């Protein structure tokens, strides 16, 4: 998978093994931007396939809307509207991402006509029954971890990331492989206190969208619960002028039909 991505971006002719390492904080900042902050806003349709240990599958279909704060402001807002199947249709997940405080998260459950606040302690729990966590969808703040550049290859920066508050997470540390040409994290491995890799994220496909390298397929696997979840993105777009009013409790019960088309 990594070799395929490398060939896609023709790194062999662009990089050399003797390149001087970029400061780790700069690598982290660029990787965070590449993964979550491309364009002033963004939109994508997502098809999620959840596979259990016996090979049985379930699906989720949803649309993600994102809007960033002002330039140089790491605040973001996310709106996730579920189209299907029937048991999750019209469910809405919304996030107000705050760089220096706990994020605000809401889930609207249409069957109960209930808006539920998601506590900060629930960030690393399953996102609608998948192997992805709530935090994976909106992103983990770089400020929550200490970062170390443990290896630099021709094609990747390899970072070891250790949580500052180990009591708030289930992992001891994670290793991220950052693609040098795009700064996209193409693989993230989570390790427990015994040093066992129990959870792995892989970027399966990267496409150019309006000149922006964009992950359009990704997988999360977890050996503790078994199985994996794949997400495939279509109709991806940036800088759509998405109205900030959409990211409010009013629109949890009344989805913005035009923006979700």
Automatic annotation (TrEMBL):
Domain of life, per lineage: Bacteria
Keyword terms, alphabetized: Lipoprotein, Signal
InterPro entries: TP_0789-like
Domain Uncharacterized protein TP-0789 stretches: 76-253
Signal peptide: 1-21
CDD domains linked to this entry: LolA_like
Gene3D superfamilies noted in UniProt: Lipoprotein localisation LolA/LolB/LppX
Official protein name in the record: Outer membrane lipoprotein-sorting protein
